Sequence to fold (746 residues):
Amino acid sequence: MSKIYINGISSVSPQSEDIYENEIPQTYNENILPAINIDYKSLIKPMMLRRMSKAVKMGLYCSKKALQEAGIADPGAILVGTGQGCMQDTEKFMSNMLESEEGLLSPTSFIQSTHNTVAGQIALDLKCKGHNMTFTQNSASFETALLDTVLLFEDEQVQNILVGGVDETSEEFTGFQKLDGQIKEASINNLDLFASGTSGTIISESAAFFTLSSEKNDSTYAEFKDVQIINKVEKSDLISKIEEFLSRNKLRLADIDAVILGRNGDSRFDHYYEDLQQGLFAEKCQVGFKHLVGDNNSVSSYAFWLASKILKEKRISQIFKLNAVNCNAPRNILIYNQYLGRNHGLILLQSH
Amino acid sequence: MRGVAVTGMGLVSAIGNNIVEAHTSLKNGKEGISLPEILKTGLKDLPVGEIKLSNSDISNILQLPDDHSYTRAALIGTLAIKELLSNSGFDNFPEDTGFISGTSIGGIDKTEEHFHNYKDHPEYRKYIQAQHPGFTTEKIAEYFGLKEVVTTISTACSSSANAIMMGARMIESGKLKRVIVGGSDCLTKFTLNGFNSLKILSDQKSKPFDNDRNGLNLGEAAAYIMLEARELIGDKKILGRVSGFGNANDAFHQTASSENGEGAYLAISQAIKKAKLSASEIDFINAHGTGTRNNDLSESVALKRIFGDTVPDFSSTKAFTGHTLGAAGAVEAIFSLLAIQNAEIYPNLNFNSEMAETGLVPVTEFQKKEIRTVLSNSFGFGGNCTSLIFQKDE
Fold:
């Protein structure tokens, strides 16, 4: 199989993309974080924008940016991970249906409610007729899209693949996540997330898309090496899973320079990360991101964006660091994420 | 022998709670279309393909605890895989078995049931996470102790066809040695009202490929097959092989198919190429054939583009089961495998007159005929088009 290079990246999240350089965070004092306002009009026609839900807007915008950066007009495939899909339109259609007691309904929100609306709309906009897939496995959704990326490159049918993760929030459905304890009860400041000591997390909307290519070019950020998903793992077995993953990529633990961890401040499940931070990864530069961009089912795509930045810039922006270990010229980065103790994902990136 | 071996299967649909029942129905032309009884909906006059088992019936069969949080799609999915387990040669699935499930709507049945209850009734909050497709997949995985690669594809009506494709590619690449693939979707008010708002539901039994077709009937089903790598098979019976697959996007409209059937044409072409076949080697086509004006015309045009004036025998089985959305690709994969194993063609019901535009006539009576190669089509919203090719193991 050819190597897989990350040649274009783009993210929309509760933070500006400039945060990596200027280290000025947006702070929030509520537990549901919106993505910051973006000039969507710069890339999407206003008439189209009016009809689009947030997930479609964010996904299409990031797709165009990531393709532009890589200098690609028509990727061979479009792969999207979204754990919760187009919730806003789903909620709209469901509310109308329940309120009207199954009365006369407009089909518009139903049409846009399917999980593959984002991938379909990107294909429609780009007139891309290639392989088009949508993965919806909770916090392993983006990771599954990466898995499909590897399979497609192994097949050597395509040279460029657009892959991304996107999740939006919606008023009622996201609100339900407060009721079942997924979202913290008391409002916190996002920068205090890791010290909160309470159950639940802060939920956000975000998107991050990437142009992955079999050839490197001037814009190449890094090489995407491998991905693994594990639905359920005993904490005692997690270390051996990580070691197996590294050894299958012919790496030893010592080769890993930095780890990006999906800590989300949930006192019930952060021990998965804390044990690694104090044990296996104690000597590694540890990086977090959910104190800045919150948590959602495809936010590991933001970690992928972050790892790409780190490997291109060859330094780790202070604002993301979880410990004092320094890392000059990072070469191998491991991303580990899970949600509610399920759907664990491992992603490996390497400088090119 | 090319292709990935199929070594087990399980199916629950409106024409039977297991494969033997479904097979009998197919042979006897006995469809499963009725008015909704289990689904509580105001749209009482729209025919559907409903599984006549209530959630509590299935919970009892599966011996689930009273406080379980299985969605209906998880219940029928588990029932189907229980059957697969019984004919797969395993007492329990080995731990390294992967699971890739396709679903269009996952657990939205629970959201529509409890939308107004969550606030004041904490006992229903176990279903809040159930709305999202991954939850249903995980519930099925839990029942069988599957813990490793467990994931979900949601591409509307091609979801389970895509799950089969991804599973086959995982086996080919060596990333998995054994994987359960397929899908599950149940009837919900959400989808029934949604398709009704699009005005593509028929108030009669659907008539795929008929000139006077006037829409589809929704259905519900769960269908799964097991794929295994060559080195694991030993003397196991191989039910057939997945030898070709292709996915393409129509890139035409969010819900409507293009007039020239471009997405379908590309998907079928890729599948035939992948299987290293020529079009003339396809013995039978299990068409997507939903019974809508738009799909059946677009699909017919695509078939004529591929096969010219010699379109092979084809039929749509949607008039038997209803359109089971995300499960349809896997349901029809099993029908394709049954056709291969038993040398049979199952009829396209309710057909009277050919479409004026294409003149294509499907097979309308049950037939005995040797079938070595089947093309199965599944097309979905978002322009998603998938074609699979199943071949006899020989």
